[in-house]
Amino acid sequence: MTFALYTKANCVQCDATKRALEKKGLVEGVDYQAVHVDQDAAALEQLKELGFLQAPVVITETDSWSGFRPDKIAALAPIAA
Fold first, then answer.
1. pLDDT band at 61 (very low <50, low <70, confident <90, very high)
2. 80 within some domain
3. Where is the signal peptide (predicted)?
4. Residue 38 lies in a domain
5. Edge-to-edge strands of the sheet including 2-7?
6. pLDDT, tens digit, for every residue of 6-59?
7. Strands 31-36 and 64-66, bridge-based pairing
8. How many domains does the chain have?
9. Domain of 47: which CATH number?
């Protein structure tokens, strides 16, 4: 499984999402990319073009969402195992 986590600095929901991904074991040993949109204008523009207006954004092979979504993170755990 591969996924990307788009975050920004000082973002409570971004930090909560990353902690939840780590707690579920979805960061280590997975093809995972963290992109800081406050440092990457092209990535920010790409997310806007996809219709995302809120950080964090998680994009997997089969799903994508924005905001802190523990339900979506929990659904990823069996796929990564």
1. confident
2. no
3. none
4. yes
5. 31-36, 2-7, 57-60, 64-66
6. 999 999 999 999 999 888 887 765 667 889 999 999 999 999 999 999 999 999
7. unpaired
8. 1
9. 3.40.30.10
Q: Are 72 and 21 in contact (CB under 8 A)?
A: no
Is 57 buried (19+), middle (13-18) or exposed (0-12) by CB count in 10 A? buried
Provide the token pair at 1.
């499984």
Is 61:3 a contact under the CB 8 Å cutoff?
Answer: yes
Structure tokens of 41? 């204008």
Q: Two tokens at 34?
A: 């963290």
Residue type, 70: P
**Encoded tokens for 70:** 């523990």
**The domain containing residue 71 runs over which residues?**
3-75
pTM of the model: 0.87
Distance CA 55, CA 44 (A): 10
For residues 51 and 64, the answer to whether their CB atoms sit within 8 Å is no
